[in-house]
Design a protein that fits this description.
With 342 residues, the chain is mostly helical. 78% of the residues lie in helices and 0% in strands.
């Protein structure tokens, strides 16, 4: 997702106009033409790929941990197959952690000449370059947080899979914490995308705000479950109310996505017809469906908030959410693919 945000927001910001001749002449790395833009975007993609892999590997490792946790805390009798499956996951995750840390340590900061090219786009480019410069550290921080969480959870997962009831209880509580941390980590990346957008009326800002607000609604539920698991005072009504408030914000942001995308597309008339303009117009057309996906996610999570308010222990088990999340990712990948061609 990070690479997609890097490319789409930088590319689309060019609709605001080319750098002034005086600014372009100030640096040899300045962007002066469509060919320069495409060259810059390709360099950006090439440089960001290692960070993207680290981020994606971190997310994959976190999902595998959650899956292993779910297997380990099942109330069904432990079987040889289950124990073997958890042991295989344990061995795999140990290797994954070692590789992830090595890859994160090898990440390089953005090349100065690349940042100079982005800054040459003007004030918006200066702000975006500041965001680009954060990507390496973001990937490193996310990978280390994930690695530590897996290391913390692994002993409990193994013990729980072998029938340790105390471990099962501890694991159930910590899994909620882990899921909350995953959502908060994703929100950090969404915040970075907002910074990279350069302008507040960019549709990617609205899209990120919608996804972030939906995540925050889930985080409110996670906090409720955490407090309940720890024996602390927790109100279903307050948690549901907080969820609904965040989901109202998600809908508001989602409804602004398509109008802002159409406004941005209208500015493309200032860009000469060519490959870049075609890619931008195609990419921005996908924001219409992205807007609807976020609205649908908010609707389903509203059902979860209502269920939570009634005390339903399976309030967050809302059929259809996973399919919508998959479609959200597919649309992100569709936009990314438009800028992966040299």
């Amino acid at each position: 997702m990070i690479r997609t945000l890097l490319v789409i927001v930088l590319a689309s910001s060019l609709g605001l106009g080319w750098p002034s001749p005086g600014l372009a002449a100030a640096a040899s790395n300045a962007v002066r033409s469509e060919a320069d833009v495409l060259k810059m975007l390709n360099r950006l993609v090439d440089w960001s790929q290692p960070s993207t892999r680290v981020i994606e590997s971190s997310q994959a490792m976190a999902f595998e941990m959650v899956d292993a946790t779910g297997t380990a805390i099942t109330p069904a009798p432990e079987s040889v197959e289950t124990i073997a499956r958890i042991q295989a996951w344990r061995a795999k995750s140990a290797g994954d952690i070692a590789r992830l840390r090595a890859e994160a340590a090898a990440l390089q900061p953005a090349p100065p000449e690349l940042l100079a090219a982005i800054r040459s786009l003007g004030p918006t480019g200066v702000r975006q370059a500041a965001g680009v410069s954060q990507v390496t550290q973001l990937a490193r921080s996310l990978s280390e947080d994930t690695a530590r969480q897996v290391e913390l959870m692994t002993p409990l997962i193994v013990q729980a899979s072998q029938g340790d009831q105390q471990a099962k209880g501890q694991l159930a509580r910590r899994m909620v914490v882990g899921m909350r941390l995953m959502l908060e980590g994703e929100n950090t990346m969404l915040d970075l995308g907002i910074v990279l957008s350069g302008t507040p009326d960019h549709p990617q800002v609205d899209l990120n705000l919608a996804a972030k607000a939906s995540n925050e609604a889930l985080i409110e539920a996670m906090k409720y479950y955490e407090r309940s698991a720890n024996g602390e005072a927790a109100s279903e009504t307050e948690a549901a109310s907080a969820m609904k408030s965040r989901l109202a914000a998600a809908r508001e942001a989602a409804r602004a996505v398509w109008p802002h995308a159409r406004s941005a597309a209208a500015v493309f008339a200032t860009i000469p017809k060519g490959d870049l303009r075609t890619r931008l117009e195609t990419a921005f057309a996908t924001y219409r469906e992205s807007s609807q996906v976020e609205l649908d996610i908010a609707d389903l999570l509203s059902g979860a908030a209502t269920a939570l308010e009634t005390g339903d222990p399976l309030a967050l088990d809302q059929p259809g959410v996973e399919a919508l999340i998959n479609r959200r990712v597919a649309l992100i990948n569709q936009r990314k693919a438009l800028f992966n061609t040299p």
